[in-house]
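Quick one:
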Amino acid sequence: MMEPRKNIPTYDDLDIPKTMAYRWQQAASLPEDLFENYLADTKAKHEEITSAAVLALAKALRQDVDSTPPVQADKHFKSTFLAPRRHSISSWGQ
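Output:
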């Protein structure tokens, strides 16, 4: 059995609501390439980048992976979310 960590602050110690920590963890669970594609596509459409959209994407990924065999889920997400970008991030400032 692992010993409890010492001197590591808890969410309560840092005044971070558990719901906020959970949302951060969900957003951080997105694969980097999926997140980057979301950013590029949203920027190309001149739409607002929102945490709600990132959380919805993370939720969709979890639900799809939970209900689909791994090989099919991988193919689905690669074709849906990881298709080659039409716009590069370097064009954002233009």
